[in-house]
Description:
Blueprint: H1 3-39, H2 43-60, H3 62-70, E1 76-77, H4 79-100, H5 111-118, H6 125-141, E2 143-144
Antiparallel strand pairs: 1-2
Amino acid sequence: xxHSWKRTISYLSYLILLLSVLLYGLKYQHHLEIISRETxxxxxxxxxxxxxxIFIGGIFAIPSIVKNFLTKGHWKMNWQRLLxxxxxxxxxxxxPILYFTEIIEFELPFSTLVWGGYFGADGSTTFNSITGxxxxxxxxxxxxxxxxxx
Length: 150
């Protein structure tokens, strides 16, 4: 099989994986939303809303991860990228988790951006989704094998 066919099949497989996870995840989120309306137990729904975008960000990182596995060398952590870019996005995406697990019981910085959308104020649930996707991607792509030969 030629290289272009292998690449085409890998892209199609990746597309099927991504769409499957996205569709089943959204279906499960809808299921949790219905349960939360009936039982008034919203913890599971909001926790899923926090973890699912992080997971999707991780799926977006799969091509980079595969490329790193096929590269020779030693694994390195890009600490600057992880701390400067990843940490703020991780924090903003897990604010609901910190709230519902009651790890931190005081007002968190930027929490109004995240919680505003959930409770009808000025914020948006889109903010949590975007920060979660970015966090998942940055965390997984911060671990790599350097290709620079010096």
